[in-house]
């Protein structure tokens, strides 16, 4: 092999294909194969610049100074001359040789020369740099293993935290759900199994919260119904005690024949007490129905001033008995509500005013317009309610003067019934002492 120097050449280069196969030349082009006179050539276009090839003198000098390489060439020449073809082919296998404690890699390859003769390439390189590098690597194995182990721990810790963090949140959220706390919502940041699980837990929490809220409402309604039943029984027992006692006394007197000339009087008294008990039971049932939480009003439009006028006409006889003066300040107004129930409220207010107004005094019934609502007021003169009792007037069986109310037929349930009716209408209501008496009022929404 005669080295050739090539500098700054830009041209199409033809190189024998078998040279390339034997790694004589290295190239960075995209070659094309040509066949010329039975020999394969590669054509490649590119630029070869500043190729450094040693001179023949330097090569000869390097070869002569390496005894092992010179000896190897001599030995190979001897094999070519004396050995069989099979022995020659065995020498083509890469070998490891050693001299002065240094290992070498020896490679012998046959090639075809330009004239068709067989030529041989003999290459030998020292493995000492590789050995030294391998020894250095061995000294660093411990550190490398420790570093890789630490790196694995860090990566495992990072991914375990990344995977375990949402699971810990799921665990915390499920614990709160188990203790009926539904305030925490899991963030859904991915579409994998953990994201799906978080989404399903959020849906489960919302569903459980809605069902538990509904269950609480049902329990509260049931508790309220039970409380209403207990109050109804207690109220009826208490209120029926007096009329039953009166009726029992009348029956005893009639049975013993004492004051037989007053028989009609005692029968009339018992009939009156029966009427009171009937009215009391009806009012108690009415109040229990309103307080049950299950009663629903049918809302409609009606003219409230017409209802007030009608009620005043029906109660005119009761006012005349006490010589009461009625003053009305009304105007046409259509409102929204249940007409029958509102008439019941107005009747209770006016009846209450009649009962508590001294003989010869005045009652004022007025309507005023306030933005989208109408205020209805019933004021009676000559009587006051103690300030500490103003909030108690809406309680069942409240009486400022029990003796007088019983004698006049009051049950003590009218204002309690009115309160429940107005609350079902979501109406604002109240009572206050005025300069000359007491005023009861409530509001209704105007119809558009």
Structure description:
- The chain is of the alpha+beta class and 448 residues long.
- It is built from 13 helices and 13 strands.
- The strands form four sheets. The chain has a five-stranded mixed sheet, with helices on one face. A three-stranded antiparallel sheet has the order 1-3-2. Strands 4-5-6 form a three-stranded antiparallel sheet.
- Helix 6 packs parallel to helix 7 (193-256), helix 7 (193-256) runs antiparallel to helix 8 and helix 11 (339-356) packs antiparallel against helix 13 (414-424).
Write the layout of secondary structure elements.
Blueprint: E1 9-16, H1 17-21, E2 32-36, E3 39-48, H2 56-65, H3 67-82, H4 85-90, E4 95-99, E5 102-112, E6 118-126, H5 128-139, H6 141-178, H7 193-256, H8 263-291, E7 300-303, H9 304-314, H10 316-321, E8 325-329, E9 334-337, H11 339-356, E10 362-370, E11 373-381, H12 402-407, H13 414-424, E12 429-433, E13 437-445
Parallel strand pairs: 8-10
Antiparallel strand pairs: 1-3, 2-3, 4-5, 5-6, 7-9, 10-11, 11-13, 12-13
Percent helix, as a range, is 40-55%
| SS strand fraction | 15-25%
Number of strands: 13
Count helical runs: 13
Principal-axes shape call: rod-shaped
Give a short account of the largest sheet.
5 strands, mixed
Stretches where pLDDT is under 50 for at least 5 consecutive residues are 1-30, 402-407
Supply the helix-strand structural class.
Answer: alpha+beta
Encode the helix/strand succession as letters. Answer: EHEEHHHEEEHHHHEHHEEHEEHHEE
Q: Rounded to an integer, what's the Rg over CA atoms?
A: 58 Å
Mean pLDDT, rounded to whole units? 76
Give the strand line-up of the largest sheet: 8-10-11-13-12
**Distance between the amino and carboxyl termini:** 114 Å
